[in-house]
Design goal:
By secondary structure, the chain is mainly alpha-helical. Helix content is about 75%, strand content about 0%.
């Protein structure tokens, strides 16, 4: 199933390219046009790049969600479900392909960050630990997206569901510190799972805005989301057309 999804890349290279370029455009826009770094001490680029890496892991789910709903709409899923395979194999194959593209996106955005002057001060082990936290967060968000795609059922409904990701992304500390926000808004931002991941990643990278102790929260939040949404998605997939 993963090979099937990767074969789609060769037939739709523009879609893959757009997925890689979009976060780079956001980074350049907030770094040079919009970003002000309210409440940030130190180099804003060192604060912004880890936040953008976390934001990228929350965005871009619509590609996988659309693919799932299109397969449902065309009846492809029904043929797969009639084959002798595990119930969740179709979904896991789709998720694996998405994780590979997410890793490529992280690599591209990291290279652009280095070109902008961002530097890692936490060492090699901490660097790869931060990448692991980012991919874990993506994996959790991905299964939320897959579950919502199965609930929506139609490609035209995915855009409406995808809008739910924007509050998660922008009600976070990706661009500014919670201390610079009104008290109630700062509290919401502080508890946002993406903010926990961004703070932990900044700490591991050794840049401004990082706080020790957030690594455990950055692990606990995605695992909690996976415990809920992974079985929900597999169960809903298994109940299709019953």
């Amino acid at each position: 199933m993963t090979r099937r999804e990767l074969a789609h890349w060769a037939r739709q290279p523009i879609q893959v390219l757009v997925g890689l370029v979009f976060p780079v455009m956001l980074l350049l826009m907030f770094g040079y046009l919009v970003g002000g770094g309210r409440g940030v001490t130190g180099d804003y680029v060192d604060y912004l790049v880890p936040g953008m890496l976390a934001l990228t892991m929350a965005f871009g789910l619509e590609g996988t969600m659309l693919a799932v709903t299109r397969d449902l709409d065309k009846g492809v899923i029904d043929r797969f479900r009639a084959m002798p395979m595990a119930t969740g194999a179709v979904l896991v194959g789709r998720a694996t392909a998405d994780m590979l593209q997410s890793a490529l996106g992280l690599a591209a955005l990291t290279c652009v960050g280095f070109a902008l002057g961002w530097r890692v001060h936490g060492g090699t082990v901490a660097f790869f630990g931060a990448i692991g936290l980012l991919l874990l967060f993506r994996f959790a968000m991905l299964w939320i997206g897959i579950h919502l795609a199965l609930v929506a059922g139609k490609p035209e409904l995915v855009q409406a569901v995808q809008i739910l990701v924007w509050p998660v992304g922008f009600l976070s500390n990706a661009f500014a510190t919670p201390d610079s926000m009104p008290g109630w808004l700062g509290a919401v931002v502080q508890w946002n799972p993406m903010s926990q991941t961004a703070t932990a990643v900044r700490d591991l990278f050794g840049g401004p805005g990082g706080e020790s102790g957030h690594v455990w929260a950055a692990v606990a939040w995605p695992l909690a989301l996976l415990v809920v949404f992974f079985p929900w998605a597999v169960r809903r997939f298994g109940r299709l057309n019953r």
